[in-house]
Amino acid sequence: MLQIGDEVYFSAVFLLVLFGTRSAIGASAVTASIYVFIVMFRFPQVPADQASQVLRPTGLASAGVPVVAHRAGGHDAPENTIAAIREASRNGATGVELDLGFTADGEAVLMHDETVDRTTNGTGAVGTLRLAELRTLDATGKHRLGEKFKGEKVPTLQEAVEECINHQLTIFFDVKDQPDKAAAALGEMYHKHPVLYNSSIVCSFQPKVIYKMRQADPGVVTALTHRPWSLSRYGDGTPRSLSAWTNYWLGVLDVLLDWAHHHLLWNLCGVSAILMQKDFISLDYVQYWAERGVEVVGWTINTAVDKQYYQDVLKISYITDSLREDCEPHY
C-alpha cells in the first residue's frame, strides 16, 4: 500500500500541475491518474521475513553487519571470477555482488563492462563473442594479483551461482541492461536453485530491469541501485558533458530521477532495499527508508574508518572492493 506521508508528495504534484495549467480539474485528474496507476500496477514487497533472510542473514556476530564483496571483491582477486568468490568467502564476506552479461550465443556470464578489454587479455564486446571464445581468455587481465590467479576463466552464471551456494554466500545479482534476457536467465537459476529465494537479491540502476524481474517472478527479492547526479556526472564527480547547457538539463533530469526513486519507483517495483552511493547516506536517510520497510545498503565502502562507521553508527550492510585493506573505489 502507499505509505503514510505520501499524501504530501501527491499534494505537491497537484499544486505543481495546478500552477502550470491553472486548472483545478486538470490538476486533480493528473494527480488521481498517477495514484491509480501506482495502485493498479505496483508490485507488493516480498514478505519482510524473506527480505530479512537475504539482507540480514543469520550467523552474524551480534555487533556485525553484512559485508558484500563488490564484483566478488575486485581488489583482492580478479573481479567476477570463481577465484574472487572463494577469496571473498575466505576473507569473511557474507555476500558477493556479481555482474551479469551475455555472450553472442546468449549464455549468461559474469562481466561488468560491455567489453572484455579491461578485465581479460582479450578485446571486443562481450555480446560479439561466443562462450567458447570467451573461455579462451585469461580473466586475470591487468589485475594487480594477476600472477597469483593466472589462468582464471570468465565463469558462467550457473558456475558462479553454484560456487556461492557452496560457500553459503548471499548473491547480489547486478543487472545493467537487457531486462528480458536477464529475467529469463535469473528465472532459470531460481527454478534450479530455490534456495536463492532466501539468499539472493536482484539489483539494478534501471527500474525497468527490476519491474521486469518482478513481473517474471514476484517472489524474488529486489533492490534499486541509485547515485544522485548520475546522469550529469561520472562516479568520480567529473561532468559527463563539456557543455554547460547540457549539464544543466542533465542536472534537472537528475533531480526528477532522484525524486522518482524516493517517492515513486521504489513503490511501483516493490523493492526491499535501495543500494545507495555512500556519500548520500546518513542516519536520517536510513530512517527514511526504514519507515517504508526498505533496507539501505551502502556502496562502495573501502576504508577501515568508513567500515567502522557503518558497523557502529549506521548499522547497515555495505559493499566493498576489499575485505583485506583500504583501497581506491572501482568505478
Automatic annotation (TrEMBL):
<dbReference type="GO" id="GO:0006644">
    <property type="term" value="P:phospholipid metabolic process"/>
</dbReference>
<dbReference type="InterPro" id="IPR017946">
    <property type="entry name" value="PLC-like_Pdiesterase_TIM-brl"/>
</dbReference>
<keyword id="KW-0812">Transmembrane</keyword>
<protein>
    <recommendedName>
        <fullName>GP-PDE domain-containing protein</fullName>
    </recommendedName>
</protein>
<dbReference type="GO" id="GO:0006580">
    <property type="term" value="P:ethanolamine metabolic process"/>
</dbReference>
<dbReference type="InterPro" id="IPR030395">
    <property type="entry name" value="GP_PDE_dom"/>
</dbReference>
<feature type="domain" description="GP-PDE">
    <location>
        <begin position="65"/>
        <end position="331"/>
    </location>
</feature>
<keyword id="KW-0472">Membrane</keyword>
<dbReference type="GO" id="GO:0070291">
    <property type="term" value="P:N-acylethanolamine metabolic process"/>
</dbReference>
<feature type="transmembrane region" description="Helical">
    <location>
        <begin position="12"/>
        <end position="38"/>
    </location>
</feature>
<dbReference type="GO" id="GO:0005886">
    <property type="term" value="C:plasma membrane"/>
</dbReference>
<comment type="similarity">
    <text>Belongs to the glycerophosphoryl diester phosphodiesterase family.</text>
</comment>
<keyword id="KW-1133">Transmembrane helix</keyword>
<dbReference type="Pfam" id="PF03009">
    <property type="entry name" value="GDPD"/>
</dbReference>
<dbReference type="GO" id="GO:0008889">
    <property type="term" value="F:glycerophosphodiester phosphodiesterase activity"/>
</dbReference>
